[in-house]
Specification:
The protein has 530 residues and is mostly beta strands. It has a domain at 232-427: Porin (Beta Barrel), CATH 2.40.160. Helix content is 13%, strand content 44%. The chain has helices at residues 4-18, 36-45, 61-77, 84-96, 98-102, 312-315, 321-327; strands at 56-57, 120-123, 127-142, 154-166, 170-181, 200-203, 207-220, 224-231, 234-235, 252-261, 264-272, 280-292, 295-306, 333-343, 348-358, 372-382, 390-399, 414-415, 418-419, 428-440, 443-454, 478-492, 495-507, 517-529. The chain has an 18-stranded antiparallel beta barrel. It has a two-stranded antiparallel sheet with strand order 1-9. Strands 18-19 form a two-stranded antiparallel ribbon. A hairpin with a 3-residue loop joins β6 (200-203) and β7 (207-220). The longest helix is centred in the first third of the chain and has 17 residues, at 61-77. The model is unreliable at 11-23 (pLDDT under 50).
């Protein structure tokens, strides 16, 4: 038996009963796929603001309003800090958050033509409801056998998003999307087992339908945020993924709170994962500090456990998860990570993360099963060599064998068959480089190169080898190199067309010795949020 039905309503009752109505304005979180994150990353690297949310996402809309206030204050004093294209994007950003900006004590000029559009808005004395229609179409074309089977060749989604504010004391967000895909060859019937992914319904034998729903309520104070519902948490500085918690995991039910004070932030949550093996949970804590304006550091802990009721020791934010796990019998899958971001005065930031699944100083770091670790190192350079409106980025990842696995299958580090950590998975490495240029507010072009290597591994096999040894990139190694060209066009406000071309060079594809191929891939994606 889980306590999910009791905990969520209890949270709402406590928030509404013990805190005065209307004292603090509330706001929802900004979805992780919103374009604003990329633009804000650029401006932060240029030193135009300091975020109180560090590398914990999603950001609240209210927090982004505060970030815009910082930027506006600086560019008002020196308009030349932004290029012409950055000014265009900044005007759109202000319009996107005009309601949050109107609540600030600083008056910020916003063009009415840039106000965030909605499908409908309903206002009452105490309630505001905003509705957005969501639509997307994706097509994939390949000249040879596909390399990434997880990318659908044909996908369409329809959905609706709702943002509700109640008496400026409670903010609610709800989003539902239905996905229609023609990739049904591997399906013989309806699938409702979370162990193999999201629930899928077959319609007419040639169309598969799946759904994704997000819904939560949030109550914010100046120093404390409380959230309960169905959402996702991402921790770390990575651009394409993080090692401990990433957006690769599908959404989950959770309750979460954040505490911040000056240069310090603490976040704690407990989540309910989806598994066909029984009840399954995820708990996490994260402490972030900024000792200097140019450096932010964090330590994070998580644990996956299941096949029993909630352990309140994992909910207690004042007990380290590592200590709690030992008190509870040392039978769960606990992890720890350390990450940092260092901002240089030259429009460049360096970031990294070290992830420890299991670790022992007394055992060999590279060949002993008892040391399961991963590392990421990245860099982001804005306006390299003085090239305006240009970005250069690199990100290197190495994940040792058996990372994310566990001897008890219920504790495997997955949700809906997706890794909760980095999408790359164990026994693999990835090198990624990209150069991007923003020609106009609505036009962005990116060229990239990536090398991805994967040894043979099975995330569901966490059993210790007989000789207690491991070898990085063991077995037949699949190597794929991607040469990419991407174009993003904002046809009109919140109406995006993405064109992504890749030339792929594969060696030992699917871990089959001698199976090599060159492949051309084109992905076309149309997305509307209105």
């Amino acid at each position: 038996m889980t306590h999910r039905p009791v905990l969520f309503p209890a949270f709402l009752l406590i928030a509404l009963h013990y805190f005065p109505i209307g004292v603090f304005a509330q706001s929802q979180n900004l979805p992780l796929d919103h374009w604003a994150y990329t633009f804000l990353d650029r401006l932060q690297t240029r030193g135009l603001y300091v975020s109180e949310d560090f590398d914990t996402r999603p950001y609240s809309r209210e927090a982004i309003g505060e970030i815009i206030r910082q930027i506006d204050q600086k560019v008002e004093q020196n308009p030349h800090l932004l290029s012409r294209v950055e000014w265009q994007l900044f005007e759109q950003l202000k319009g996107e958050f005009y309601e949050e900006l109107q609540r600030l004590d600083r008056k910020i000029a916003i063009k009415k033509s840039e106000y965030e559009p909605h499908l409908f808005v309903w206002r009452d004395e105490d309630i505001i409801v905003r509705g957005d229609g969501l639509f997307g179409v994706q097509k994939k074309f390949e000249s040879k056998q596909e390399v990434d089977s997880g990318i659908a060749s044909s996908l369409t989604y329809l959905g609706l998003g709702l943002r509700v504010d109640i008496k400026q004391s409670l903010a609610i967000y709800a989003e539902e999307r239905s996905f229609f895909t023609g990739d049904t060859d591997s399906l013989t019937g309806n699938v409702y087992n979370p162990t193999v992914g999201l629930p899928v319904t077959l319609e007419g034998g040639d169309v598969a339908i799946s759904d994704k729903a997000i819904g939560y309520a949030v109550f914010r104070l100046p120093w404390l945020d409380l959230e309960a519902g169905r959402d996702i948490v991402e921790w770390g500085p990575g651009f394409r993924g993080n090692l401990i918690l990433s957006r690769n995991s599908d959404v989950y039910d959770l309750f979460k709170f954040d505490f911040r004070f000056k240069k310090f932030k603490f976040e704690s949550f407990h989540a309910f994962l989806n598994s066909g093996l029984g009840s399954k949970y995820l708990a996490g804590r994260r402490i972030e500090i900024r000792p200097w304006k140019s450096l932010q550091m964090a330590i994070s802990e998580t644990v996956v456990y299941g096949r029993r009721s909630i352990e309140f020791m994992y909910i207690n934010p004042f007990i380290p998860i590592n200590v709690a796990e030992r008190h509870l019998g040392d039978k769960d899958n606990n992890t720890i990570s350390f990450d940092f971001t260092y901002f240089t005065p030259y429009n460049f930031k360096l970031y990294g993360e070290i992830f420890l699944d299991d670790f022992s100083f007394h055992k060999n770091l590279f060949n002993n099963f008892g040391n399961k670790w991963a590392v990421m190192l990245g860099g982001y350079w804005v306006n390299p060599l003085g090239l305006q409106d240009t970005d250069f980025r690199f990100e290197l990842v190495r994940i040792e064998p058996f990372v994310y696995t566990h001897f008890d299958s219920i504790n495997t580090y997955i949700n809906y068959n997706n890794v909760i950590g980095h999408w790359l998975g164990p026994n693999a490495d990835d090198w990624y480089f990209e150069l991007a240029h923003q020609f106009h507010r609505d036009w962005r072009v990116t060229i990239s190169w990536e090398q991805r290597r994967r040894g043979e591994s099975n995330i569901f096999n966490g059993q210790k080898p007989p000789d207690n040894r491991k070898k990085f990139l063991s077995g037949v190694v699949e190597r794929v190199r991607f040469y990419g060209l991407a174009l993003r066009w904002q046809i009109r406000r919140d109406f995006f067309l993405d064109l992504n071309y890749n030339f792929l060079q594969s060696r030992n594809l699917r871990h089959l010795p001698g199976y090599h191929q060159n492949n051309h891939r084109l992905q076309i994606q149309l997305m509307v949020n209105y």
